[in-house]
Predict the structure.
Amino acid sequence: MKKFIIKTVINNRKYELSVSPNQTLLDLLREELGLTGTKRGCEVGECGACTVLINGEAVNSCLVLAPQIDGKEVLTVEGLAEDGELHPLQKSFMKHDAVHCGYCTPGMIMSAKQLVEENPQPTEEEIRTAISGNLCRCTGYVQIVDAISEVQK
Amino acid sequence: MKQFEYINAKSIQEAAEILSVLKNEARIIAGGTDLLIELRRPNAKTPQTVVDITSVKELKGISESNGSIILKPLATHTEIHKSDLVKKFAGFLGEAASVIGAPQIRNRGTVGGNVMNAATCADTVPALIALGAKVTLHSVTATRTMPIVDFFIKPYKTKANADDILTEIKIPKLPSGAKSAFIKLGRRNALSISRLSVAAVLVQDKSGIITEARIVPGAALPTWMRVTEAERMLIGEKPTEKLFEAAGKKVSEVMISFTGRRWSTEYKEPVIGVLVRRALEKCIILLNEVRKNEC
């Protein structure tokens, strides 16, 4: 099977990668690049654990083929911190105890990231819509919504 | 996922040429939100080649031309939902796009995929049928345009041949003064598949009499269609709760005439009626708002 050479930017770093057609972006991130912050969950686009941003838009990386990120910019949870300083969303999640087992957290934060970039002062309803594709099975959503609502871009 | 070849097509022509050779051995990928799930199934029929059309510029965008909205198939549900053009001239299509899946799915999933996949629960389709949209299919041998209502044969089966590419969805704008609504019932609010839905359009004259009505149920009939029996009951009448209930009852009768009575009928029979009533009521609320602003 033919492999593809793609050029992409992941977490602000340029990559030239050889990828297989039947490899998903999720596989590429976790298995090849060691970016295991992005979690593997349902693999049918329902749980949101694998959410990353492609050109600023939240997507399920389990539903993107690796060759499809050629020429695109990908941001994962590992790319949020700058100069050793956590992103305000990450700090707010810690402050509000919006993490229990932590499995949904990277996906939640990436969905929230697209929201606060586009809408710096979201309403509670807008926050709930933005994270509606991310399932949390332990803490509940109250602390997560609180954490996001406190972050003003 | 099993192995397959991948081709990133750069134009409609290139994609059409690949399909003309590979036919059923090729599958098109746009948003991938249905295809990847399908390919990952253990017993999936894996195509030899996946043809990626997401780089084809001619297949992107939402624009206006001679009183119609031109929806290119790669328009994502997010783009449709945010489009001012759609909001203004086909409000319920935007509403329908906004309740598909979740933001991650809407950012990626396309209207072309929704139409071509032809799942019974495809949420953009009832509105497209009510709007009288036309689809254009292109292959190396022919380009043909047909009303979308004739395009669907049965769930997951359309009139598109294996070498056809959907290149355009043309939507006549709703008449001025028309109001539309889409109501969806899922098992929960987020990320739900439609169990039943209703797309509706109403137009009233100055005295409040209904002059035009369109009702298309979703996930209720073998294929989508306007329920003209119910629409006719509304024309020439003033909106009342009783009238809308009767129209809802008619839709539910029509549904049962197609599906027969089965295990889910006990639930669906009253529920589709209520959804029709709610969709019509929503249109009236929107019409009244317009009137208030005019006063």
Summary: The two ends of chain B are 61 Å apart (CA to CA). Chain B has a mean pLDDT of 95. The first helix of chain B runs from residue 12 to 22.
